[in-house]
Amino acid sequence: MYNGGIALENGRQSLIDGYTDNYWEILPVERMQILEDVSLPGQAKNADFERAEEKAVKAIQKHSMNIEGKEKNPQIDEAYLLLGKARYFDQRFVPALEAFNYILFKYPASDKINQAKIWREKTNLRLENEELAIQNLERLLRQADIKKQDLADAASTLAQAYMNLKNLDTAIVNLDIAANATKSNEERGRYRFIEGQLYNAKGEKDSANMAFDKVIELHRKTPRIYYISAYIEKAKNFDYGEGNKLEFLELLTELEENRENRPYLDKIYHQIAEFHLNNESDSIAVDYYNKSLRTNSRDKFLNARNYIVLGDMNFDQAVYRAAGAYYDSTLLNLETNTKLFRTIKRKRDNLDDVIY
Question: What CA–CA distance (Å, rounded) separates 73 from 63?
Answer without folding.
Answer: 7
